[in-house]
Amino acid sequence: MATEVGIERSGAAVNGRANAEFEVRNPATGAVVGTPPDMTPAEVADLAARLRAAQPAWEALGPAGRARHLHNWLNWLMDNDQRILGLVQQETGKSWGDTKIETMVAVEVINYYTKNGAKFLADQTRRPHGPASLTKELKVFHRPHQLVGIITPWNYPLGMPMMDVPPALMAGAAVLTKPSEVTPLAWAEMVRGWNEEIGAPPVLGCATGLGPTGAAVVDVVDMIQFTGSVRTGRAVGIRAAERLIPASLELGGKDPMIVLADADLDRAVKGAIWGGLFNAGQSCIAVERIYVEAPAYDAFVSKLTTEVGKLRQGSDPQEAFEAEIGAMATEAQLELVERQVDGALAKGAKALTGGKRADKGLFYPPTVLVDVDHSMECMMEETFGPTLPVMKVADEEEAIRLANDSPYGLGASVWTASRARGERIARRIEAGGVSVNNALAHVFQFPLPMGGWKESGIGARFGGPNAILKYCRKQAFVSERVSLKTELHWYPYTASKARLTDRMIRLLGMHDWKRRLGKRPGAE
Q: Which of 284, 378, 381, 396 is catalytic?
């Protein structure tokens, strides 16, 4: 994820208490679209205390009771989706088509985890491990962390928190969210809807503000889920370690796409365009570098250049489907893309499309780069923008080696006509998720884990039971099946009990049958 920057502070102190606000601007037009509060650490602590106070009753509702409130929230979202998505588009500058997918994420996540929450949270019964445990009943209970913190980036203001918040709420935790200062408006309205429109318990909070606000969230919660840049993620992880609280970190990506000579090139080109340019390339799991086997390289590049050239760019709500590619979210992010492209061109790369920022707004045109190599930042550093650098490789071995030549390991894709070949290569890619003949597909298969390797993160962000259980503490439970007056190993110690214990250990614990009842070496 790219670093969140570019917000201005305003306001003044009142009675020694900060009464600051900050401006949120539409990156397509530069217009101010909101001025939410810049919450102080004291305000964050007050909000956390209120959430904690409400959590025990929320946990006591059980999975079915909690699911009813989440369903009501989903209904409220769909009743207000045009207004909520309008906020998303205003604060991000996305195209309308890119904006619409955020509703789909919310629907899918809430439906999946409310449907499966009770099963995932059910008590687990464990079989006794040996004769010494036969009189015991063994169970594992899952008890939620009382207050979970969720910090999300600016690229998907609705979709990102919706990937994390519903599972945490289903776990029975209270949740304190911190949206990016770049795009806080739509999520703040979603949290307002939870607290004011659907009659839900007050267990969901939203702390808007700049960097100190996010740091304050990490300081008051019992578990933190962070999605964002590697630099900020390291700081969050360090602070979580200092506080001895668990942290789940989904960080940056530089996802490779391997196109083999036997691939369906028409499908691969469409996958590269959508996987690399969706949301103007501002996705941690975007296709950021493409390796094409030599026999298919020229045809792939020709088709790719033609299709990218057909894409339209804009973010006008009055012309909802007149553009595919929207704006960049911040000036700093656009400048990063400019720096990478200019650096590649200076080293001998060629831009077959795009290659220069637009005259107005934070728009950068979709850019196909060729003659690239791993000496260039566009192939080694996260771009988070609408570029598609394409590199020719001799064979699959070179493609695998180059795909793994990265500090990141979030996702990858392999394109081939052979299912067996695709799986064989996927097993050698150092990434948390691999899709064959599709782009970004593994992210939205909710039964599967979604998380990064190497510098792309720690822990799985969601997927299957772990998406809920990660917000829980495991509690071991032991009860007696048979009521005995005492245990063999309890006081007092006696010679007869020692002999009996020794015999039992040798009989039941040793693996050599010939020695089970034999004498120990040196015994009389």
A: 284
